[in-house]
Amino acid sequence: MIRIASPQTGTPPVTLRDQHGRSIEYLRISVTDRCNFRCLYCMPVEGLQWLPNANILQFEEIVEVVRQLAPLGLRRLRLTGGEPTLRPDLPRLVAMLRAIDGVEDIALSTNGVRLPDMARALATAGLTRVNISADSLRPERVAAIARRDLDFDLVRAANAAEAAGLGPIKVNVVVMRGLNDDEIADFASLTLLHDWHVRFIELMPVGDMRELTWEHVVPSAEVLERVSTVGAFTADSGPQLGNGPAAYYRLAGARGTVGVITPMTHTYCGTCNRVRLTADGRLRTCLFGDHEVLLRDAIRRGEPLEPLFRQALSEKPLEHALHQMRVGGLSALSQVGG
Known about the structure:
The protein is an alpha/beta fold. It has one domain (26-335): Alpha-Beta Barrel (TIM Barrel), CATH 3.20.20. Helix content is 24%, strand content 17%. A twelve-stranded mixed sheet has the order 7-8-9-6-5-4-3-2-1-10-11-12. Helix 1 runs parallel beside helix 2, helix 2 packs parallel to helix 3 and helix 3 (115-125) packs parallel to helix 5. 46% of the residues are buried. Residues 6-14 and 323-328 have low confidence and may be disordered.
């Protein structure tokens, strides 16, 4: 059982800012380090040494982190993994987080395999929207990239989310030269028929995923050239919620948009507004940095977390170390929730 620290009173809330003056209002919460896929760019095929259950934050402990951050300006949450839908009773956590004053937006990043069965329960609990990772529209290629055949179908998953009222729906495609870059036009064409936002992400060949190298990176400029084979497009503001680091475009007459996310060719660190909570309770200030502060022990002792939050933000780096091919000493992206 955790002991809840009493919130400070008598002083107005102060927005959390890092040492570079960036306002922090967005927390990505990894609820598990486990995944039912073994994607080429994310996790070794043999998996990883999973965290002991005793080290994983309980739902009540996750809620306590958010409860103490919300008065300081936290407004947006994203549940990640591993694959977050593997965490038992996930809708209960969503409902607990939705009940916290100040939380305006709760999103989910998922591989989509379980969405057809879970979308409605998640929406009822208070989930706002979903991002679905989908690196191919071809079943045999999905299985090859994920190194698991779980009968994933992007259209089925996205339709289930849409029917449940989750939106905007974003589809994240990691583009890999020679592996799936020939499907860029097919993914872009989805936006002609669906109010979905397909974002092409430059491959980040880091950690132990060294079988993928710079040679597999497809720059965003090349991605957009291939999108242009579908039709003319213009710059667009994108979805109203959660635009993040993507630059958006809309094909003529399209219901949805196409976006590009460019960690390799154009960094967006100057506007970073996020930190990450790992499944075992470490506050990580940069996806590709080394710095993190352990919150779990303080939560379990019932200690106020604000001093640890502010310590972490005072050491948040100005830019990531991605161009040095590092993920902060970790071996896989799955360990930090992407």
